[in-house]
Design a protein that fits this description.
This protein is α+β, with helices and mostly antiparallel strands and about 350 residues long. It has helices at about 5-20, 75-85, 115-120, 125-145, 160-180, 185-205, 240-250, 260-275, 280-310, 320-330, 340-345, and strands at about 30-35, 40-45, 50-55, 95-100, 105-110, 210, 220, 230, 235-240.
């Protein structure tokens, strides 16, 4: 049975490719690609190696997890893509763009294939070389951004106390209440609120710089020569140095051995300094990494329930256990959060010591 909405989208993406290439595209095959948690949709038009990927943005699209403020003054994807490319980061080329269409924006992008870091791991590639490349690129990017701050929208928005706190509330609303069916007693509420306020304040006080926000195994494309290209960067903003490391090394989709995580953190500190960034003490750096793990993975666990209940996409529910394991392990390394762990574990047993 024909789907008029899908038929219309397929016609639009073919037309966009025709405009980008200057050649007719009526007969080209169209296939929708996995869009993960994004409200944008992605469509492959044509056959490799001549195919393109078209990003379809819903009307009035905004950054999806940055909820305060009005619409951005520029298109975040195009703006950050330009900045990353100038910084030497491999990103998909933009071949054509139409942002003012009342049916939603269209971007025709270079097709980088289907090989993500995650899929190469599942195929049996050794993990260490893949993560070394990812770490080295991240360290170079951060050092460059700290030496040349400014130049794209990411430098105009930041993780602040309000945003960290909102994300922690997101965990309580969706994981604790909606998923577990639990509610905090008044005494528990006071302790959790105080702990969440303190976490948000400590993280907001960390030095800020360019942060991809979701630098993880599904957003790193492994190209035929081994180079890694970065995608899904439109929500970039200012955040702590550890944030992208938490996204990569505490990935809800890929769990890494503890010794590999330790080696990658040490490698990052070495490569950051070699690239002209600061020389940082490993102890305080790891403590902030663990605190960010608590904050980010609590938010992720709640977000996955939200995506299921609100967007009707249950595909991320299997990633909740890994997220909670990360939180439990990080809480164990932060004795100052022992009371918080005890309260949360009453309602979320997966967090118990």
């Amino acid at each position: 049975m024909s789907d008029p909405a899908r038929d219309r989208t397929e016609a639009r993406v073919r037309q966009a490719v025709a405009r980008a290439s200057g050649r007719p595209a009526e007969g080209l095959p169209v296939r929708r690609l996995a869009g993960h948690a994004s409200m944008r949709s992605y469509w492959r038009v044509g056959l490799p190696p001549a195919s393109r990927v078209v990003m379809v943005m819903p009307p009035g699209a905004r950054p999806e997890e940055i909820t305060s403020g009005g619409p951005p003054p520029v298109d975040p994807f195009l703006d950050v893509q330009r900045w990353l490319r100038a910084a030497g980061v491999r990103v998909p080329a933009v071949e054509w763009a139409s942002l003012d269409d009342p049916e939603g924006g269209l971007l025709v992008l270079e097709d980088l294939g289907d090989e993500m870091l995650e899929t190469r791991l599942l195929a049996g590639d050794p993990a260490e070389p893949l993560y070394e490349r990812a770490i080295d690129q991240l360290a170079r990017l951060r050092a460059h951004a700290e030496a040349h701050p400014g130049g794209c929208i990411a430098f105009t928005r930041a993780f602040d106390e309000k945003l960290y706190r909102w994300e922690l509330d997101h965990f309580e609303e969706w994981l604790l209440r909606a998923w577990k069916g639990a509610s905090l007693a008044p005494g528990e509420r006071a302790l959790v609120d105080a702990a969440f306020d303190r976490i948000a304040a400590l993280l907001a006080a960390e030095p800020r710089g360019f942060t991809h926000r979701d630098y993880q195994s599904r957003n790193l494309m492994v190209l035929p020569g081994g180079e890694q290209a970065v995608i899904d960067f439109q929500d970039a903003l200012l955040g702590p140095r550890q944030y992208d490391l938490v996204a990569l090394l505490r990935d809800s989709y890929v769990e890494l051995p503890a010794d590999l995580v330790d080696r990658m953190l040490a490698r990052y500190l070495a490569r950051l300094a070699e690239a002209g960034g600061p020389r940082l003490e490993p102890g305080p750096f790891r403590a902030a990494f663990d605190l960010l793990t608590v904050q980010r993975k609590l938010k992720d666990a709640g977000r996955f329930v939200f995506i299921d209940r609100v967007r009707g996409n249950p595909g991320f529910l299997p990633s909740i256990p890994a997220s909670l394991r990360y939180v439990r392990e990080a809480l164990g390394r932060r004795p100052d959060l022992a009371e918080l762990q005890a309260v949360l574990a009453r309602h979320v047993p997966e967090l118990a010591r």
